[in-house]
Amino acid sequence: MIGVIGGSGLYEMEGLQQIEEITLDTPFGQPSDAYITGVLNGVKMVFLPRHGRGHRLLPSEVNYRANIYGMKQLGVQRIISVSAVGSLKEEVIPGHIVIPDQFIDRTRGSRQATFFGEGVVAHVGFADPTCACLSDKLFRAAQAAGAVTHKGGTYICMEGPAFSTRAESFMYRSIGGDIIGMTNLTEAKLAREAEICYGVIALSTDYDCWHETHEDVTVEAILEIMHKNVVMAKEIIRHAVQDSVLEQNCSCSSVLQYAIITDRAVIPAETIAKLGPIVSKYLP
Ligand SMILES: CSC[C@H]1O[C@H](OP(=O)(O)O)[C@H](O)[C@@H]1O
Ligand SMILES: Nc1ncnc2[nH]cnc12
User: Fold this and answer.
1) ipTM score here?
2) Residue 83, annotated ligand binder?
3) Which residues are involved in binding substrate (predicted)?
């Protein structure tokens, strides 16, 4: 099963057949909205709007743990994130697509970015935070949909909700950032812990505030580009979903095998119960 998390400007998936709306409550709280399941081009998928329908949640208010836990409960093995991002590079023109493969964390530490704790410690590998195999498919899907697409790139994940200062924007460029957003890193960490492949279709919507000849970012400008490109974004998902039926060749589904360090004998039963489908393979 494929999961799609829609970001700013993408609050529903057209073309889904056999639609069902599933409201879940998880041990980590409530997801952003009901999950919409259905069939797209013969492939079963589930859609969740990250900020909720009507865009009600700040990037810092999104319950990322509940969102990913719910996906796991529904049997999702691959998550495609669709996000609006600012461009930190001249060549990443607004309207282009980037498939990022790295993140730099500029969140403030207040987000819940792990399922572990409460008596069980796990350290997953995160050197390559997105699934290379899924990202490759997203790259090919974006090209097939006719988008100018950049393979790889570093996504700066800032806290928000205010956009960056000009000095920060210059700093992000100087430390190797290619694009900037407020959501994807937290999601990628949790997807990794949940052993779900995670890949990003990032739509460049603006030049943040570093560019000499382009206006500073505004929500208005972001939504204008997003609306102009939403059909293309959905087209990329359609191509990706078809392609994703093919066999995956990655290790995302077994990252917890050696990551849980806690002595099994001292892990509280209630913690195991709470983690449910995240650890059931290893802590029966
Ligand atoms: C609407 S402007 C800023 C907002 O857009 C991006 O959201 P998402 O990643 O969910 O597409 C960015 O991260 C901010 O949350
Ligand atoms: N410039 C920007 N900064 C942060 N998040 C964004 N999302 C879209 N454009 C952005």
Assistant:
1) 0.99
2) yes
3) 182, 206-208
